[in-house]
Design brief:
With 242 residues, the protein is α/β, with parallel strands linked by helices. The protein contains 5 helices and 12 strands. The chain has 2 domains: 88 residues, 3-Layer(aba) Sandwich (D-Maltodextrin-Binding Protein, domain 2), CATH 3.40.190; 90 residues, D-Maltodextrin-Binding Protein, domain 2 (3-Layer(aba) Sandwich), CATH 3.40.190.
């Protein structure tokens, strides 16, 4: 098991559709002595992987069971419908959920969208994965709603996708075991949150800088001057010897 406190490799899991390259590049620049290992994990397995200690942190799709995990929501993805290019709706810019009422829609077992009511008509089967559902869409057996990044991941020339603005959306988050919040995990959190290399890791917020004290010093008097001022502000002439 990798020791996150003694300079071992940092193990980062990520679910399909998430591209961790920009954060990994920053890590490589800042932490050249600590290699980062990437673990591509199905969305349904990433939480178990984190709890078992097989990864130090991971990008997940919400909602997930947060028991024992710390979670930082990152961004929300647009939901799209994947359909054949020869479908009658393929030329539209977008569709509403109501427009799919008469369509058979696949609901794969690894679906990461939290549907209060599933759109369309139930398809003849529930595919085990999004990849399997894409194959069935290409065969003309139904449609599929997924986060846009998954539609791009499973791109095919015979398929296209349209945005569905009123559909629920999937949210990507960074998660890690709360009991294993190591220094390396804190370093990666800082990278994901956009902290600079010189900023705090975030274990304790830095105390705010004290405001400079208001200057109370009087303006210096002109050197060599022997004149005094009267209460009215007029300069008093020095006494002349009699």
């Amino acid at each position: 098991m990798t020791d996150g406190e003694t300079g071992g490799a940092f193990r980062l899991a990520y679910v399909p559709g998430v591209t961790p390259a920009k954060w990994v590049n920053v890590w490589t620049e800042r932490m050249p002595d600590v290699p980062i290992t990437l673990l591509a994990v199905p969305a349904a397995e990433v939480v178990e992987l984190l709890r078992d200690g097989r990864a130090d942190a991971g990008f997940v799709r919400l909602p997930v069971d947060r028991d024992g995990l710390s979670v930082i929501p990152l961004y929300v993805e647009t939901t799209v419908v994947v359909l054949p290019k020869d479908h009658e709706a393929a030329e539209a810019d977008e569709v509403a959920v109501a427009d799919l009422a008469d369509e058979e829609v696949f609901h794969p077992l690894d679906d990461t969208i939290d549907w209060p009511v599933r759109p369309g008509l139930p398809a003849f089967t529930r595919p085990p994965s999004t990849a399997d559902a894409i194959e069935l869409v290409a065969a003309g057996s139904g449609l599929l709603l997924v986060p846009q990044s998954l539609a791009r991941l499973h791109h095919r020339r015979d398929l296209t996708y349209l945005t569905v603005p009123d559909a629920p959306q999937s949210q990507v988050a960074l998660a890690w075991p709360t009991a294993a919040t190591t220094d390396l995990v804190e370093d990666f959190i800082g990278i994901v949150r956009g902290r600079t290399a010189n900023s705090s890791r975030g274990r304790a917020p830095a105390a705010p800088a004290a405001k400079p004290a208001q200057r109370q010093a009087k303006k210096p008097t002109q050197s060599g001057s022997t004149r005094r001022t009267t209460p009215t502000g007029r300069k008093k002439k020095p006494n002349r010897p009699r």
